[in-house]
Amino acid sequence: MNPDQGPAFGVGDASFQAAGGEPGLQRLVADFYQVMDLAPEAAGVRAMYPADVSDARDRLASFLSGWLGGPKRYAEKYGGISIPQFHTRWQVGEAERDAWLFCMEQAIARQPFTPEFAEYLLRQLRVPAERIRQVQAACPMRPGRS
Ligand code: HEM
């Protein structure tokens, strides 16, 4: 911990606070899906989602709350989740991983985050995104699931 800069991201709820708490995460996620709707780079990934992403918005914002050290809203509302396992129902290769991260990068750039937190958050998100790809590669789409 640096007394001048507050706790390091990843300690306690420092990241959740740096993201602007729940309203900040809701704005981030709303912008994320808006970028995904509009960016031609993301068209392939957008097609994996339902037309109406309001439920997906709440689920992702709730997940990010707990993941960044804030209230565990996803667990409270929806129960447990393993992110890599959950995503095995879609084909997620490098292109899909990068398109998803591209939308996040664009959405993060729209937030009033410090450059340090913006960089940290994107770096942290690359970890589960890559894990999703790896698990998907090891366990391709199961028959009977779309
Ligand atoms: C690697 C690229 C990724 C792709 C292509 C992808 C794709 C998807 C899709 C298609 C859905 C379903 C939305 C719906 O049907 O409503 C979804 C849900 C979700 N994703 Fe991802 N995702 C990716 C990465 C991530 C990452 C890195 C995280 C976490 C940091 C994440 C967290 C979630 C959560 C929490 C949900 C909602 C789960 C639920 O339905 O309860 N995703 N994702």
Question: Can you walk through the features of this model?
Answer:
The chain is mainly alpha-helical and 146 residues long. It has a single domain (14-138), classed as Globin-like. It has helices at residues 14-18, 21-38, 43-46, 54-67, 73-78, 83-86, 94-109, 115-138. The model has no long low-confidence stretch (mean pLDDT 93). The structure holds protoporphyrin IX containing FE (HEM). Protoporphyrin IX containing FE is lined by residues 45, 48-50, 55-56, 59-60, 63, 78, 81, 83, 86-87, 90, 92, 96-97, 100, 125, 128-129, 132.
Descriptive keywords:
mainly alpha, 62% helix, binds protoporphyrin IX containing FE, Globin-like, 146 residues
Summarize this entry quickly.
This is Group II truncated hemoglobin. The chain is mostly helical and 146 residues long.
Shape: globular
How many domains, as an integer?
Answer: 1
Bound molecules: protoporphyrin IX containing FE
Order of helices and strands: HHHHHHHH
In round numbers, the mean pLDDT is 93
Number of DSSP strand runs: 0
- Summarize the main sheet: none
Structural class: mainly alpha
| CA-based gyration radius | 15 Å
The name of the CATH topology is: Globin-like
Number of helices: 8
Q: Give the CATH architecture.
A: Orthogonal Bundle
Portion of residues in beta strands equals under 5%
Percent helix, as a range, is 55-70%
What is the CATH superfamily?
Globins
Distance, first to last CA: 46 Å
Uncertain runs are none
CATH class: Mainly Alpha
Keywords: Heme, Iron, Metal-binding, Transport
Family: Belongs to the truncated hemoglobin family. Group II subfamily.
GO molecular function: heme binding; metal ion binding; oxygen binding; oxygen carrier activity
Pfam family, one: Bac_globin
